[in-house]
Every structure is written in structure tokens, then in C-alpha cells.
Amino acid sequence: MRPHRIVYILVSCAVLAACDRATTPAPDGQTPAAPAPVVALQDVVETRPDYIVGISYPKSAAGHPLLAQALKAYADAARGDLMKAVAGLQGQKPTAPYDLSLQFTGLVDTPQVVAVAADGSSYTGGAHGNPLVARFVWLPQRQSMLKANQLIADAAGWQAISDTSREQLMTALSQRLDADEVEGADRAQQLENGSRMIDDGTKPDPANFAQFEPVMNAEGQIRAIRFVFPPYQVAPYVEGTRTVEIPARALLPHLAADYRKLFQGG
User: Fold this and answer.
1) Under 8 Å between Cβ of 205 and 158
2) For residue 246, what are the β-bridge partners?
3) pTM score
4) Residue 190 and residue 168: Cα distance in Å, rounded?
5) DSSP code of 24?
6) Which region among 29-43, 56-70, 214-228 has the lowest average model confidence (pLDDT)?
7) Domain shared by 54 and 86, yes or no
8) What is the CATH number of the domain that holds 128?
9) Cα–Cα distance measured from residue 266 to residue 241, given in angstroms and rounded to the nearest whole number
């Protein structure tokens, strides 16, 4: 066999081997995860005779495609509900324009935790708009959203959170009545009604604490969790959104092991 023929065969074998390596599937049949598509978060301002839309996004979400997707999906759903109501007008002009006002605000932006608040309202007739309240807690290193039902490991933890939340909310209610100088039968009635709403809205169920935001210390650790209750959950609409703050030291005994390191003292 001629030398140049041998060289050709060796080169061909090397090329085939390289091609085989390139087409070999990942171990265990795993396919490398494709990068998440980039979602452009653009503020929206629309004014029409029958509806108005205003949506604003934080810059902090732009570097996290999956978080940006979640924010966009929430806004799109709210807008979709508004446009269904507008379509229901069948061309008639409403007494007051239907309205969607939604603001996303960056709360936390660290390598470990990114948090965004969504606050606004959607008006489609009636005495007032429907409140829009949501919180998004993104863990960049895990590429996942932190949900309330993942955060607490056991039923005892939810009971402790429920008890503390009820205590704080009842104290705030009593202080408000003091400030308004409400006394006698009127005070007793408002305490009874308020207590009932608080009891219902703080039952030890993760769904009642689904909206929360981390409160950070100077070292970038979570020093407390602020649970957020939309209007109607624990108080009448006129009192707006209510919150309670529970320190990390009270949460630590009940935290799921995967998330302890995110917290002060964990």
C-alpha cells in the first residue's frame, strides 16, 4: 500500500471517530437543556376610548429569561381578562374607560435571590377595580421560582406562621381602631368582623401565604419573610394590601433543608 493511501485512510478514520463522538447522545439519554428564549419586557401604555392599559417592568428581570417569562405571562393574563371584558361591550362605550394598571417593581437583586412585586388593579365596571397582587421570588443559581409550599417543610411550620400572622394582624387592627377612636358596640362589631376575616385568611395552608417577599440583610441573606395578603383576604378592600413580617430565627426550625443556607443563621 502506498504511503499517501495509508495517510488518507488514517485521516478518514479520525474524521469518522470525531463525527461519532459528536453524535453520541448524552449519558442516560439526557438531552442538554436549551437556553431559555429571551423575553423582551417592554413597558406598555395604551389609551383608547373604551380602555386604558399601563404596564411597567423592572430592569432587574431582564437578565433572567425564565423570570421575565413569568412576569410577561402574568401581565398577558391580566391584559387578556381586560380585553375579554372590552369585547363584551360589543362596541358600546362604558361609563368610565376600562382600565388595567400594573407595575412590576424590583425588590431584591442578588446572585442568590431576585424578587419582584406586581401591584395594580383592573377595572371592568362596578364600584372599584379588582386588585392585582403577586410576588415572584427567583433563585438564579437554581434557575427556579421559590414557592411557599417548597419553603416550609412541615405542618407545624405553617401553624407557627399562621399563629404569628394572626397575632400581628389582630394587633394592627386594634391599633387602627384606637387611632380612629372607635369605641363601644361599633368597636366590638369591627373587631368581630375583622377577626373572622383574619382567621379565614391565615389558616395554616400554604395557599394563604403564596405571596411573599424576602427581606435581606447587608450580607445578602434573608433576615425575614414578609407575607403579603391582597385586599379581601384578611381585611376589607378599603384597607388595601396587608403584610406581616416573620424573622428568620422563627422560620429556621421549619425551613426545608434545601433553602436554609439562603437565610440568616442558616
Assistant:
1) yes
2) 225
3) 0.84
4) 17
5) S
6) 29-43
7) yes
8) 3.30.565.40
9) 30
